[in-house]
């Protein structure tokens, strides 16, 4: 009798252990660890969204790892990360590689309109820059444009916009968007090329300080001058407007897809707006009452 009871208890315990193990392994969007790969140019908005997600789901732990855009994409393909932030358009070959290696359809989760901007020291006499100046300057041995490095989102996007390969452009390098701003006064003949999110936060003290150190040049294209503001980002009229999006290799609804969904909902989009960027999925609507 006792032996039969022992066997029954062991069976129940085994079933419970297996059930718990299955529960622990089941997908969960509201608890667990996640590392997000992001280029330094849009690290701020990624961090803000991660903080918002962790506040809503305290059992989640999100780490932001800064990595050049191209290298982050390769890590995603090679299953070294579950989610990466991208800005440039992938080539047909890259989309094919994504779908084959990740075994998912290429569906970018767009969440914000950002921009690449051209900056000079505050006291510079230069007031604007033309698309022709940008093209010719990036072909010149003078290397008057300063980027934050090779494989970076800023370089990739400008090259793509000009229908060039990054390797064909000539430029100087100062690692880090913020470093470009802080060191630009030592290079008065140069033009810094940075991501808008570097200093787009309206009421952030560091952003205010950085904005005070440089002048953002409007871009002239086809005889018209375009400045960077909410309207030009929303309408994508500023020539170097770019759309930020998430890519994941997660096939189920786990923490990566939970974070993506959150970032694209109204709450996440409000965080994007507070970062000084244009939300991709919500727009301000004006209603006239009569």
From TrEMBL:
Question: Entry's InterPro entries?
Answer: PBP_domain, Phosphate_ABC_transporter
Keywords, alphabetical: Signal
UniProt domain PBP: residue ranges? 32-263
Q: Which domain of life is it from?
A: Bacteria
What is the protein name given in its UniProt record?
Phosphate ABC transporter substrate-binding protein
